[in-house]
Design brief:
The protein is an alpha+beta fold. Helix content is 44%, strand content 12%. It has twelve helices and nine strands. The strands form three sheets. It has a five-stranded antiparallel β-sheet. A two-stranded antiparallel ribbon has the order 6-9. Helix 3 packs parallel to helix 9, helix 8 packs across helix 11 and helix 11 packs antiparallel against helix 12.
Length: 340
């Protein structure tokens, strides 16, 4: 890390660098001064996922400039510039960026209370609302077709023709269930021509919100996936990851259930900011949004299982099969859930 610190004008003799957080894509460290009250967050961009790191930097600069003019009071955590005025540095072929550490802030890995779900949904809604006048078309596409459900289904169909023969036989029941829910794709294809495209975060897990000590939301972070998109992506991902007490790694499917208070908290929190921005038709799509994102994740896990785990990898044999079954179970629970 010595070369990287020097590019930011930081003395390697005075700063320590330790791993930080539980992110699955980028590598993250906390950089702390031994003698000064200074802390930073250092991240290495995963170029296996983000092929063009410069596009991420471009998007963040555009958003930062817009918010400085139109919402100067909003806490937007932008990268620190290095000694040459760049917002990224390169070392051994890899790209890194440094952020200020927000004092008296914290992140949450697991949603434990409906109030946390409300605050997170409010922050993601606020982020999109503040960028209402921003031309989302000016953003670079950092992950092409990231939430394109039609493409994900096509990739699933290709795996049925080219996947591991043994796994195809073993997965027949789950494959049949996935196909039975293809109507979710048909709805997406009908909606995608009418929904408004906005500046959308696309990765609304709870750990991408900064909270204060009292669990009040401060702002959203990790903006690598910010692109033009539909609100169902952000709302759907919150429903997928907040409403159940267990995540996609859970093998005991009997523990998968919908928590009504958490579901309602997401809707209330998001609408507290976006209520005047969404159309009446969009407001009817919250339940579909959850189905959309859960189904897409089930497709991706099952496709990867049939393709011998080439995308997500696997910590044990059948890992992605379990994940796919977990998400289909969650989808069925949500489809049976009547929000009232």
């Amino acid at each position: 890390m010595k070369e990287i610190l020097l590019q930011y004008g930081l003395s390697p003799d005075d700063f320590t660098v330790q791993p930080f957080g539980n992110g699955l894509i980028n590598s993250t460290w906390i950089v702390e001064s031994r003698s000064l009250q200074k802390r930073y967050i250092l991240q290495k961009i995963n170029q296996q996922v983000f092929k063009q790191p410069a596009d991420i930097a471009f998007n963040i600069r555009l958003i930062d400039a817009y918010l400085k003019i139109h919402a100067p009071a909003y806490l937007f955590v932008s990268p620190i510039k290095n000694l040459e005025g760049a917002d990224m540095v390169k070392s051994d072929g890899a790209y890194y960026r440094m952020f200020p550490f927000v004092t008296n802030s914290k992140t949450i890995d697991v949603v434990e209370k409906p109030e946390q779900a409300y605050e997170a949904a409010k922050q993601f809604g606020r982020f999109t609302k503040l960028l209402f006048g921003f031309d989302a078309r000016s953003l670079k596409i950092t992950l092409p077709d990231f939430h394109n459900l039609s493409l994900r289904y096509k990739q699933f169909e290709e795996s049925l023709n080219n996947g591991n023969p043994e796994r195809l036989v073993q997965s027949k029941e789950l494959i049949d269930e996935v196909i039975a829910h293809k109507h979710i794709v048909a709805t997406y294809e009908k909606l995608s021509s009418t929904l408004q495209r906005r500046c959308t975060h696309h990765d609304t897990k709870i750990s991408n919100v900064l909270f204060d000590r009292h669990d009040k939301g401060l702002c959203v972070i990790d903006l690598d996936t910010v692109m033009p998109g539909y609100f169902i992506s952000d709302v759907g991902d919150m429903i997928r990851t907040y409403v159940c007490q267990v995540n996609e790694e859970e093998k005991d499917f009997s523990r998968i259930e919908i928590r009504p208070a958490f579901y309602q908290a997401i809707i209330d929190g998001y609408l507290s900011e976006m209520g005047e921005e969404l159309t009446d038709e969009e407001k009817k799509l919250f339940h579909y949004a959850g189905c959309f994102m859960i189904y897409m994740q089930a497709l991706r896990f099952l496709t990867d299982h049939l393709n011998n785990d080439v995308y997500y990898g696997a910590k044990y044999i059948g890992h992605n099969f379990v994940r796919a079954g977990n998400q289909i179970t969650l989808l069925n629970r949500l489809m049976a859930f009547n929000p009232g």
